[in-house]
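TEACHING EXERCISE
Course module: macromolecular assemblies
Task: Read the component lines below, then compare them to the predicted structure of the full complex.
Student: A.B.
Group: 4
Components provided:
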Amino acid sequence: MAVLDFESPRGALAVLRRDLRPKGRLLTPFNVVSALIMATTAVILVFRFAFGLGAVTNLDQRFPWGLWIGFDVVAGVALAGGAYVVTFLVYILRQEQYRPIVRVTVLNGFLAYVFYAGALVLDLGRPWNVVNPIIGNSFGLTSVLFLVAWHFLLYMTAELVEFSPAIAEWLGWRRLHRILVGMTVGAVVFGITLSTLHQSGLGALYLMAKPKIHPLWYSELIPLLFFVSSIFAGLSMVIVEGSLTRRIFEDRVGSRLRRSHDDILLGLARIAGGTMFVYLFLEAMKILHGQLWREIREGWGAWYLLEVLGLVAFPMVLLLYGGVRGKLPAVRAGAALALAGVILNRLNISVIAFRWDEPLHYVPTWMELVVTAGILSAEIWVFRWVVGRLPVLGRRPAWAEEPGRHGASVETRHEAA
Amino acid sequence: MERRTFLKLTAAAGATSLAGCASAPRSAEDAGEDYAVLVDLTQCAGCRMCEFACAEANGLPEPDYDEKTVDQVRREPSERQWQVVNRFETSAGEVYARRQCMHCLEPACAAGCLTKALVKTDEGPVVWRADKCMGCRYCMISCPFDGPKFEYHSPVPRIQKCQMCWERLRAGERPACVEDCPMEALVFGKRSELLELARQRIYGNPGDYVPHIYGEHEAGGTSWLYLSPVPFAELGFPTNLGTTSYPELTRDFLTAVPVVLTVWPAFLLALRRANVGDDETAGSPAREE
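Instructor-supplied answer key:
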């Protein structure tokens, strides 16, 4: 096998040298602010590793997990669910109309996992032992967290494989490109399976925290609720982020995506709305089975209703209305509200309604907020760099044009070329 | 290509379905031979000798003993102090109650630990191992008794909690606190024998005890057992924990994992295959570019 016999490695080097230089103006308001945040993050992290987590966070013996886990990991991974849903639509259900957004969605998902799951390492007290559950000297097989950690790692690999043809196109590696394209379906099937399990697994982590989570948020259904909500959280993220990306990277958008972008968003809105209906049904079952009527009438009930009615039911109506009637503003508003709803849900379970009865409740420090913003900034910088240079939104090299839907057609094309 | 993909996936699924193996439950009968400690709160005079013995035996700082305030401040075990004795004004007058890790028969912390840093030893104690732990603190999320404590102000933090003097146990000695208790409020022995002793005390001294051995069934049973003259709620003990073990709460999920890992890929590939038909009749818009 001549796998490593890439066409012109020198050409790839030239591409790298050209593309590593910054493009466009450097001193934009976004660049200045985000660079400041990232610099502050770096300083805070020095303190964090020199003096321990207590030096920069408000975590304590009652609240071992705060914003870095609750927002960065638990909410962040739900929002990154778009990748497995869109690849499911395109590669399993063969809904070809969604193919133009596969790459950008997978890239987003991959970066989200790298940065948000990567943020997990900052929160580990003894990060030098992070390889222990991987290398096999101590497999905690009874641990849901063991499963989640493994699945994060494997899913990142699967997403990298799904995205890798774009890298090969960028560097002009045709032969490798053919091999990588052939691996896509396998990676997609494996990726969807892993996502099913770790999206629900993140919820299953909280099953043992039974006495600590307010009964309106604790239920045996948490894994299922996490899985179902990751579907519409991911799709809402694709809608919001797709609307922004299209405007910001106007010149990088290919003709197919330009033509069909609005229809794609409307279609995704309908799917997200339908999923939210299922989610609301499950929430209703949870209330009925748990006989939680009294809790709803008490103090936390209003907060719960804000989440479930205000930030799930209302955006569901917006998404379905906008999706069916072709009203993009309603779709965008619905998606943004749905995102807020899922973030609130994850924060409620992991932070806000966690030890709700504790008089001195955890509130993050400004440093925890800055680090979270710093990680987000870094992710946006990398995303911008990749979208600005790699064929993500369209504009592929002629030799790698749309492979069609059968793996075989790729090969025949290449033979012909 | 489909078949090859499927084979690759099956191999991968097989490798990772390991992650779903749930541990065999540990029944109360199995645990009867484990070492355990019975705390008889009617005997405790609040002298705190046990606190000092614990600190000395485990190389911990001196307990935060302050003659003036120690009776008024409600203390919790911490990363510097594995056990504390508190005074409570109760319906039966003054009662002193100590708290430490309960050493569950099926510990949530050990089941949740992804590196097996926390383990239930054959002797009974639940112990922590520094070379395994990555400091994720999931043990603290899952423990219903808030046993594990974390050193937030150290760059090399450890999980700190009562180890039930595991080393001493293996050398044939009793835990340091039991050894130093002048009131014999702490009794060390086999769990089944201590349960027997506790029942004898309850039956033999009607009115002195509430008829409840805390730890016999709480959270699936613990290696530390308590007798009290007043209901345990008055002493700040959690009374909403139920009698099933906490790992039981995730067992259904973990059982479903290997099923999903093996069935899902096959189902997805079949679904993909099934959609080919629609495709050919509907034409191929993907190739129009």
